[in-house]
Design brief:
There is one protein chain. By secondary structure, the chain is of the alpha+beta class. The chain has a single domain, classed as Alpha-Beta Complex (Nucleoside Triphosphate Pyrophosphohydrolase), CATH 3.90.79.10. A 4-stranded mixed sheet has the order 4-1-6-5, covered by helices on one side. A 3-stranded antiparallel sheet has the order 3-2-7. The longest helix is centred in the middle third of the chain and has 13 residues.
Length: about 150
């Protein structure tokens, strides 16, 4: 599913990536954000999500990403499609000198309870009201776009 680092570096340097972002709400309408550990958007609060792999269906990617990012498997049919977004970053996962371009499929879902959230991509998690995340300078602009 995933390619080696050198191949992925070439892909990111030359093509857009397709990803899924998860706008996760709780019963109070708050939104789950994680503090990113890696580039791009390192150090910012960001919605969970990740890229779609080659030959992976969107349904399979959604199941994989919800398991990896939320600690539980959720089907794409349980989410509401918000639209297609474009994320442009001046940096990339490797720290070398080229940008990252994502075409993002955003989905909103509601979780009443959550398991222990994975720590591979995020150092911390927090529930934000939409108003609070729009006002917070450490919430990345690409996550704020879902609430404007």
């Amino acid at each position: 599913m995933f390619v080696d680092t050198d191949t992925f570096r070439t892909v990111v340097a030359n093509t857009p990536l397709v990803s899924i972002d998860l706008v996760v709400r709780n019963g109070a309408g708050e939104v789950l954000l994680g503090k990113r550990l890696n580039r791009p958007a390192q150090g910012f609060w960001f919605v969970p999500g990740g890229r779609v792999c080659k030959d992976e269906t969107l349904d399979a990617a959604f199941l994989r990403l919800t398991a990896a990012e939320l600690g539980q498997t959720v089907g794409r049919g349980q989410a509401r499609f918000l639209g297609v977004y474009e994320h442009l970053y001046p940096d990339n996962f490797s720290g070398t000198d080229f940008s990252t371009h994502y075409v993002v499929l955003a989905y909103e879902l509601q979780l009443m309870a959550h398991a222990d959230l994975p720590r591979e991509q995020h150092s911390d998690y927090c529930w934000f009201s939409p108003e609070a995340l729009l006002a917070d300078e450490l919430v990345h602009e690409n996550s704020k776009a879902y609430f404007r």
